[in-house]
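Batch manifest, entry 17 of 40.
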Amino acid sequence: MRRICGEYKKLTSDHIPPKSCGNGKKVNVMINEEKFISQNGFNCKTICEKCNNELLGSNYDKEFKGLYDRIDSFKNSRIILADNILIDVDIKKF
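Output type: structure tokens
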């Protein structure tokens, strides 16, 4: 079943967070005290391909990617950051 559109279709793997936000590498995952390794980032079969690619991938994932890139740009910076940083995002897409 499509979790977003409500139609009954085959579920596909969805990266959470999106693969473009650094979630494409090997990760260790614990679920109910059971550990497993995901070779291609953390993903779950939660939504159908159409909702994953057309809705999330073309709209919302881009907002996550923009935020990820802005935060990642501080990683190698020599700038001393304040305790709080304001980063603009479209909250409707986030």
